[in-house]
Amino acid sequence: MPEFNVRSDSVNVEHIMEQIRARIREKRGVDYTEEQIRELAAVKLEKFLDPRGVRSDLLEQFRKAMPAYEPPALPNYSFESDTLFESHRGIIRFFRKLFHPLLKLFLFNPNPLIRALNIQAQLNTMYAEREAQRESSRRAMDQLYYELIHNLVLELTRTGIEVKNLKMRVESLSSRLEFNERRARALESAVVYKPAEEERPSRPPTPVAAASPQPAPPPPPSQTPAPQAPHPQGGSPPEGPGQRSRRRRRRRGRRGGGPVAGQFGAPGAAPQSAAGTTDGSPDARPEAPSAFAASDPALAPPTAPDAPEDDGPDDDGAPDTGGDEPHGQ
Amino acid sequence: MKVAVVVQRYGTSINGGAELHARYIAERLARHGEVEVLTTCATDYVTWRNELPPGIEQVNGVSVRRFPVKHERDPRVFGRRQERVFAHRHSIGDELDWLDAEGPTAPALVDHITRHAGDYAFCLFFSYRYYHAFYGARAAADRAILVPTAERDATIGLSIFHPLFRSVRGVMYNSPEERTMIQAVSGNEAVAGVVVGVGSDVPNNPQPGRFRQKYNVRGPFAVYVGRIDENKGCKELFDFFEGYLQDPHGKLSLVLIGNSLLPIPQHPRIRHLGFLNDADKFDAMAAADLLFMPSYYESLSMVALEAWALGRPVLANGRCDVLKGQCIRSNAGLYYDNGQEFAETLKAIEQNRWLSGTLGRNGRQFFREHYDWPVIERKYLDMFERVRNAPAARAVEPLPGWLDRRRQDLPAAEEVLAKLPTGPVTGHRQPDGRRWA
Questions:
Q1: Does A11 touch chain B (CB under 8 A)?
Q2: Residue A28's closest chain B neighbor by CA?
Q3: ipTM
Q4: What is the percent of chain A with per-residue pLDDT over 90, rounded to a whole number?
């Protein structure tokens, strides 16, 4: 199955892109673009969660723990040179200032006291401002942490969904793999336990030889030692080392071909060319069963019912679908 | 007919997009009349340092008159002024200061145009964003034809350029998207304009085999040609391609051609060949299965056109309106907006040879119809004829006075840009029935 359907002589890029995007959506399961995901992650929790529908008291907890910040009303720390003599009555203020020199002369000098208290007032103001600033920045940091946790929760949720999707994909792939293994085992057992020709009741000469327009060339003696020569009537040869893997390779080349019975030379199978070799291995034999011999695409007849996959462009102008590999892998 | 081509830099070794565009056009127009190039002594577009002697010289048979740049660009000053006009409310004076900082500040060039404008039938100004085009086009507005080479960046939102688009006699656009953007921002629909672009000297018989042998490149590959820079989308390309490399079915390698300003990922299927000459470049493109065009900002991708001329499909960044529009109008390339789309479109081109071949054929036809040199030359000559027969241009809008220049009432250029229409022009035909270029 092709990734998308393009069959006409002219292509429409927009249409192709729609098909590709549909396929991505299908694979992904969730129709979120990257931008949408980023947008979702950036949205604040208040906007994203509906408190009526979601049982999450995170927001409430946060609000309880962090009420809106209001800077406290600071006491009046100011202490200036004339604070000691302040009065709301003007006449008293006047007399206090008038007798200030007498106070300094006969009782005590209040100036050091005024200076010390003034410094203390400045220090108090400074510390109060600093504390307010620190509190404000702490709350800003808390807000940031809160947003960070919120984004982490979102990311974690998204990752969870992705993990779930991936698990499903793995399960799907495992089942396909299992199926393929069972199929492979079934095919192998069909070869190994195929009854020898002499065990069969009676059988006409091999259709391969009958249908082949040219007689099969004799195998070169160096490449086909006598003990390993194939049985001319299709009997099961003894298994040599590496033969299983060769069979697997042949099977790969043969995928998408005709029915299994036909490939293994059963009565009624389509005749196939016996001229090709499978993989160029030295012991590939011209007389090998036809299904194996046809696995080289270059040597397969154009009308062969089980023509192997071709990496080149299709002759009929149809798009190359990339063979019959399992779709979406 | 004598035509002046006014451009910020000029020379055979200068490969900037607009400069190469100007050189190609000058050399082609020289076959139809007398052409003189007016340019600066600079070769470096970052500093505008005077590196070539002032005066007249011949470059490929075209007379080139160079003028010195008054002062080099100070990156700190330029950055500060750019930040001011792009991101904050500002005044016309701020924009003029930005233009002066950007350069190439060549008052001698503008003086020459002012004094000798009458000697030229037409003055072609390349790249609206530079000093020479702004002041030069104002000095010779009655015969100025602008080739803006405008990209979708904040510069287009600066208000000093909007009267410029309205006051010239004609505008040679590179793409329908560029035309839409400029008309939206400046309202210059009354000015004669045509979508032209530029051609390319693509060889008829490239030698892909020779390239593979010379650089020992085997197997199918995709090619990127150009400066390897984050601004060109190469970092994103690397990320996406590394994602593609995880796919066991993907067989393509990536071949990079051009000078690199980025570290190249170390992978056996990613090869960087550096800067190649034109012959090797075209051979490489002919040998490639497709061309990547990952840039976010393009006014016209010459490399994409060259790939199409060679019958190769293009995979472009869909966030660039111009590239996306070109892919859609030509039906010769696919585009991506994210990593998944990149992987899927790449797989489609790689695995579906019929599709790949059809895209390539469409590209070749698109190039022949719109970007072959005879077509380009014809469009320029038609524009000259059209301007010659049109009534005289309206007066240039004067620059505001001292007080108005200091009025901080202009919005940030980025805000202006954000309000402009986006997206590719997807109609296959223009309002007058002709196909888009």
A1: yes
A2: B340
A3: 0.79
A4: 1
